[in-house]
Amino acid sequence: MPRRRGRPSLMPPFVLLERIRRLSERRQGLFRVHRTHGDLYARARRQFGSWQAAVRAAGCDYTTAIERARRRSLEKRRAIRRRDPRER
Question: What is the pLDDT of residue 14?
Answer without folding.
Answer: 93
